[in-house]
Structures are given as C-alpha cells and as structure tokens.
Amino acid sequence: MDAVAGPDRMLNPATRLLWRSNNCLQLELGDRAVVVDGPAARSVRRLAGRRSPTDTGPATGTAVLRALADAGFLWPRPAPDGEDRLTPPVPRLAAELAALSARRGEGAAEVLSARRFTSVLVHGSGRAGPHVAALLAAAGVGRVSLREPGPVRLHHGVPGGVLPGDEGRSLAAATADAVLRAAPETATETLPPDEPADLVVLAEDKPADPDHRDVLHRQRRAHLVVQLAAGHGVVGPLVIPGLSSCLRCADLHRLDRDPAWTALAVQLSVRRTRRAPGEVALESVIAGLATQQALAFLDGEQPAAIDGTLEQHPPDWRIRRRSWPVHPDCDCQSGR
Questions:
Q1: What is the separation, in whole angstroms, between the first and last Cα of the chain?
Q2: Which InterPro entries match (predicted)?
C-alpha cells in the first residue's frame, strides 16, 4: 500500500465516518463532507480499523487518499517514540483539540499549545466579565485575571461564572475561583505593568471610560468591548491600536448620527446605583460570542469584531454585525 494510505496514516480524530453502503463512505469534518467509494473507501475503512469480513479487495485509490490527507481528513500516525500531535497539552482539552482540527488540520495542536502562553486581562464590573474569563481559561488560555476593586453583587451570579454565594466577596477573587473551577492549571495573578496582557476585555455595561481607552491606545494594547443591556448584548469593537478603528471612532460615528451623543455618553457612563438589567440566557450567548472573538484574535485569525460589533437583540435569534470603520476625524491611525 502507498505510504499515504499505509500504517503511517490515521483518520483525523474529528472526522466522522458514515457508511452509505458497503463500498461507499461519507467523511464529515466540521462543515465539510466528502463521499469516497471503491478502493479508496476500503483503504479508509482499514485506516479506521473497521474492515468488514467481505472487504478482501486491494486497498488502492492513492490519489484520493492523498487529497483527503491534504484536506485534513487524514493525519500522520505518531511514531511510538515521537511527539504525539493528537495529545492536548492538558487532557481535558481533548475535545477542544479535535474541534480545532476541523479548521486548522494538523496545526491544531500547535494553536492549542500556543494558548497556554497567552494572557487576558478583564476590566470592569459587568456581569459577563467573570464568565468570559472562565470560558477563556476552559479553552486553554494560560493566564486570565480580572481587575476590578468592587464586590460581587447577587446579579453577577451565572452558570459558569461567579456564584450567588460569592455575594459580597471581591469580584476579582471570585472570578479567580471561577477560572480555577473551569481550568485548575490556569494562572490567575495579574501580570506586572511591564508585561502587558495579550488582550484586554472591557466588560462594563456602560460606555468605556475615555481616559482608560486612551491609555490602552497609547500602550498599543489590543482591547475588546463586551456590553449587556436590557434587551440586547454587544461584542466589540475589538481594537488593535494603529491597525483598526478605535472606540473614539465609534463615538464620532454616533455623534454624526446624533448631535446629542456626547451628552448622552456622559450620562450613560455614570455607574448604576441599582443592578444592571440583563437576561441570563442573553448573557450566556454574549459571553460565548466574546470568547470566540478573543480566541480568534489570540489564535492569529481575523475576528469579525475588528472594525465592527456583533449584536443580538432578542427575540431576534440572529447575530448581526454592525460596521464601525475608521472615522476620518479620528487620529487613531496617526500613532498617537
């Protein structure tokens, strides 16, 4: 048998194998599917260890198998004394690795391993902040912490985030506990000032503080906004200083549409004396969406929240993207 179809190859662990007939297979990987029949189907069945008693013909179809290997459906089988690219850095991440392989092929393990060396700092007292922190840790991010001096309020409690029993505790400490419940190996200490985090998540249910956003921009620190309000949730923009539109760009676009925006923004920035409204189901969707965007950035992909926001307004089930391009009156591209 050719090396492509020989014992040095195996099915990608994320590949689903379905029999259409005795000599015809359907392979599914993520949102892709291919149908294989004839000699190549027999080879795939043997690679999967599912050879049938009637499967006595030669296992050929080398060109098809090579194409399957190039498309990520087949992987090299690890040598007994070599590095196993199918083993995640932490056993609990096996499902994460299999899912990543559907998009990243043989590079999935490298992507997942790289997450261990990334760090995310969450700012703000928004309900979604601790939840996003725990989800990022569960996905393999090596260091996740929250910087917020305030206490846990009862409304902060959500499945996967801080608990109702944390009420009154430091929100930062309760978030660290939520992170460690999700991923015990995660570092939760905040990095020193001379070691900035790879991404800052601004989880405030109000407009970002102008002084804080300006500091992040001057320090060239990527930051992602996550906001919840009564009836809708917003993820983005994800700002990469000097390369994308910034939060001031979004404010200038709002001002173009509404001359009263500056006055409204000042009032919206005042911290609420009562708990912020928000549905737990919507919060869970927004926290998951924010985590996806953060991971896409950390993994070197192109998040949809760059130069835009992702929004959901129940009962509409759709996630809508709103564009926020660089504003011509903003100096964010000038290196300020």
A1: 62
A2: Ubiquitin-activating_enz (IPR035985)
159 lies in the same domain as 273: yes
Do 198 and 134 share a domain, yes or no? yes
Are 56 and 176 contained in the same domain? no
To the question of pTM greater than 0.90 for the whole model, the response is no
Tokens at residue 181, please? Answer: 């419940």
Q: Does 94 reside within a domain?
A: no
Rg (CA), the chain: 24
Answer yes or no: is 7 within a domain: yes
User: Which parts of the chain sit beneath pLDDT 70?
Assistant: 1-8, 49-61, 78-87, 268-277, 335-336
